[in-house]
Amino acid sequence: MEKTSLEAAIRGTIEPYVHSCGLRIYDIDASVNLVKITVETSSGNPADLDSIAKTHLKINSILEEEQVVSLDSVAVEVSSPGLERNLRTLEHFKNAVGQSVSIRLKPGSQDDRRHSGQITEVSNDSVSIKTTSPSSNESINVTIAFDDIEKAKTIFVWNDSSGDSKSKTRAPKLTKDLISPAIGGSKV
Questions:
Q1: Which among 8, 27, 145 is positioned nearest to 91, based on CA atoms?
Q2: What CA–CA distance (Å, rounded) separates 28 from 3?
Q3: How many CB atoms are located within 10 Å of the residue 102 CB?
Q4: Which runs of consecutive H residues, i.e. helices, occur in the chain?
Q5: What are the extents of the domains in the chain?
Q6: Positive or negative CA dihedral for 38, 42, 46, 50?
Q7: How far is the CA of 23 from the CAs of 5, 39, 69, in angstroms?
Q8: Could you tell me the sign of the dihedral formed by the alpha carbons of 69, 74, 78, 82, in that order?
Q9: Which fold has domain 90-167?
Q10: Any idea what DSSP says for residue 36?
Q11: Is 173 exposed, middle or buried (0-12, 13-18, 19+ CB in 10 A)?
Q12: What share of the chain has pLDDT > 70, as a percent?
């Protein structure tokens, strides 16, 4: 959850312009050759495509002008966070209270590295989620230290016509019995 000095420099340089467009910066993720800037409306809704395109062009020129990054060696992407949002800051977690999330822990943090549930509480150093115990199938609260989190994101959940909640996550994994020998698999 720690921000790099490059991310902080980019934010400080472009934030006044982004705000003047009626947008706010949701996140900045900078690596060696790619800067991903995620923007949303000041009310927290997704930004429209025209706003993103206009903002992207101006951000490129501001970053090049202020010599924060060289566009010759770094690509800059500007987008909307979408339905499933990465949670990287304390503010992200606080704004996601009551939402469904998926959290992956760093290796060696706990026995079960993957947790999913609904955020119930956020403190300065941890997040609590309501989830289901795999052993007893009962609802439990789990508190996870931010230092133990490798990746976290909100999960979009919709109701089908019968009213059942369904999570939009990855498709179920195929079992060994479903792998066809005709496509190079072997049935065990």
A1: 27
A2: 9
A3: 19
A4: 5-20, 49-65, 90-95
A5: 5-79, 90-167
A6: negative
A7: 22, 6, 22
A8: negative
A9: SH3 type barrels. (2.30.30)
A10: E
A11: exposed
A12: 81
Question: Residue 108's pLDDT is what?
Answer: 82
What is the total residue count of the chain? 188
**What are the residues whose beta carbons fall under 8 Å from the beta carbon of 71, sequence distance 6 or more?**
60, 63, 64
Task: Kindly indicate the confidence band of residue 54, based on its pLDDT and cuts at 50, 70 and 90.
Answer: very high
- Per DSSP (E only), the strands in the chain are 23-30, 34-41, 75-79, 100-105, 114-122, 126-132, 139-145, 149-154, 157-159, 165-167
Most distant pair of Cα atoms in the chain: their distance = 61
User: What is the distance between the terminal CA atoms of the chain, rounded to a whole angstrom?
Assistant: 43
Structure token pair of residue 89: 């800051």
pTM of the shown model: 0.72
Residue 188 pLDDT exceeds 50: no
d(CA 40, CA 88): 16
Task: Look at residue 140 and tell me whether its pLDDT is greater than 50.
Answer: yes
Q: d(Cα 59, Cα 72) in Å, to the nearest integer?
A: 15
Residue with tokens 């060289």: 70
CATH of 5-79, one of 3.30.300.20, 3.40.50.300, 3.30.110.70, 2.60.40.10: 3.30.300.20
- CA gyration radius for the chain? 20
Distance CA 59, CA 38 (A): 12
